[in-house]
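Recap quiz, item 2
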Amino acid sequence: MKSYSFDQEAKPFATLTIDFEEALSEGKETSFSIAYSGKPSQGFWIEEYQWVDIDPDFMILPVFSTLEDFEYKIKASLDNANYKLIDVQKGSLSREIEVTSNTTSYYINPILASNNQKNGLGLYDYSVDGKEVRVFSEYADSARYVRDAALRIFDFFNSTFAREEPVTFCSVLYRPIPYHEHKVTRSFKPSVVFAKQHENTATLAHEISHFWWNRGDPLTTEKWLTESFAQYSEMMFIRHEQGEERFNMIIEKLAGRAEKLPPLLGGDRFGRYGDALIYEKGPYILSQLENRLGYEIFVDFMVAVNRDQVATTGHLLEVLEDQTSADIRKEFEELLKR
Ligand SMILES: [Zn+2]
């Protein structure tokens, strides 16, 4: 590298900037190392949590704007004996970790280190009927709750849209932290970072569903192929566990909101309506499609979307036509444009 600078006043975090000797050309690699020697309170967490959280996606590397053509591998190790690294991908606690990017997805897991002596974080490993759930948690009760929920979610998804590609393993970092301090709940197969209260099984279902629903350009509203399908999977799970009435209440709410929104596709993913479109209008449109097709054909359609690894709305419409008819495709296209 040519030089580096460190701006302690930068917001929201102090920022380290590294300049390389020359621009990296395509296919070329470089490596550099960073030693972090601060206290937890000097890292990304307030001290009481006893965490160090180094998130390569959003905090270290500029992948968000260049994720189409940027790959990286990070090796992390610790020299503080009180801390352990949490390898959420493998579901293990260790002194060393290697994180590899998986372009074009920017959903890789953060590098997390925890002072297990102080915050009591443990690894709870459960196996039942060939399925395995590993939960990292400070609380044994929560770990059991999360495990039970995850197993029920496995069973439901595996018997519906995931039946051709069932899930039998996941690891969950259960880290409930007040929303205003840190709101990241995320998923990167086969792991989930779950930051809400443990009884929020709907969110856990949403995140686990991303093991399948993880496609479509994340920088455009095509991301509805990821988020609207995950949100609708979550709602299907709620219907499965809590009944039709609760499900219908949610749909009604979504219908009210969807009415006021511009068309699902073509807008600015990061604009005023970006999130509402893919988390509210998209799932509402999917509920209309389910109504039109009936439950079984709708689930068959979801299975086919996974089988064909659909990554664009155009492809999705072709699959829909294959599974149903040209008329239904046309009707659905109208919903997308409305
Ligand atoms: Zn999601």
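The chain is about 40% helix and 20% strand.
The pocket of zinc ion is lined by residues 206, 210, 227, 230 (CB under 6 Å).
End of item.
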